[in-house]
Fold this sequence. Notes:
Layout: H1 2-25, H2 27-44, H3 50-80, H4 86-118
Helix pairs in contact: 1-2, 2-3, 3-4
Amino acid sequence: MISFLRKYVRKFYFAFAGLFHGVRHDHSIMLQVFIGCAVIVACAFLSLNGMEWALILIVIASVIALEFVNSAIEEVVDMVCPHYHESAKKIKDYAAAAVLMMSIVAAIVGVIIIGGKLW
């Protein structure tokens, strides 16, 4: 039982290590975390209901999570193919497009929820 718990504690340790490393060393992740925190602070001054908070937090977390996935994909592609290659560029562009799509959806959700409270 102890080894079972130790195994899962290690998994959380590695996950948090990745989280803190990404936030400290990846500019794109830092930017998304900053924007997410700014939106949370702004929403704290509005009277959002539980569903609105849930949607805001889900889209913020989704954008940040996708940014982590994008950064991981970029690292792997750069490691496997350090020189320019059209396929490597396409892979990185697709991953960046996923972050862009989620960011657009997050912005729309924000406009609907926050805009609805302001107007």
